[in-house]
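User: Good morning. I'm curious how adenosine-5'-triphosphate would be positioned relative to this chain. Could you predict the structure with it bound?
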Amino acid sequence: MSGRGLFVTFEGIDGSGKSTQARRLADRLRAEGREVVLTREPGGSPGAEEIRRLVLEGDPDRWSAETELLLFTAARRDHLERTIRPALAAGKVVVCDRFADSTRMYQGLSRGDLRETVDRLHALMIGIEPDVTFLIDMDPGIGLARALSRRTVEERFEGFGQDLQARMRAGFLALAQEFPDRIVVIDGNRPADRVAEDVAARLAPALTA
Ligand SMILES: Nc1ncnc2c1ncn2[C@@H]1O[C@H](COP(=O)(O)OP(=O)(O)OP(=O)(O)O)[C@@H](O)[C@H]1O
Ligand SMILES: [Mg+2]
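Assistant: Good morning! Here's the predicted structure, ligand included:
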């Protein structure tokens, strides 16, 4: 589906350790001599990073849920065209911090009941799924505390509190059941080293396939 390379994504609630684990996996694969592109969403290409600023900064009510979904989809399309597809075609491993599952969750559930629209736009404009998605599952209270401890200007989506974090966790776990062939649930309530070992072990079969 993804060409000659391997497409790996990290998902999970705020502060669950996605960025930490994406970076560690990329470092580990590079140390093994593989060519890796470490990227993120929203963003991951110059155009998509511009759109990232439009959606993550400023007044939370700046965009309707529908407009926001279109902006995220536009960013993903640019990221796909400019970064992901070329890397996969060249046989590289693409490690991406968040991808379409985040949109299924955040625009599909929390920002109005847009899941069907999310899926239709995805089929129309994106059309690929990762080979493997690691869902870093963790206690919502711990995740929130971690996320708040390194708060940035991009706080629009983090002002929601523990209740929403708990709903998001449940939503991500439901996605894992919806896509059992692709999504691997990882226990994030452990030291980062242990989590990283687990991720590497679970990816090994896909790397040798
Ligand atoms: N397993 C872990 N144990 C303890 N602290 C951790 C662990 N993993 C990450 N952290 C710390 O928790 C904070 C959040 O981690 P990280 O930025 O990787 O999460 P994230 O899922 O990318 O968050 P966001 O959704 O807000 O981008 C960071 O300060 C990071 O150093
Ligand atoms: Mg992060």
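Residues 6-208 form a domain with the Rossmann fold fold (CATH 3.40.50.300). The beta strands are 6-11, 36-40, 93-97, 132-137, 183-187.
Let me know if you'd like a different ligand tried.
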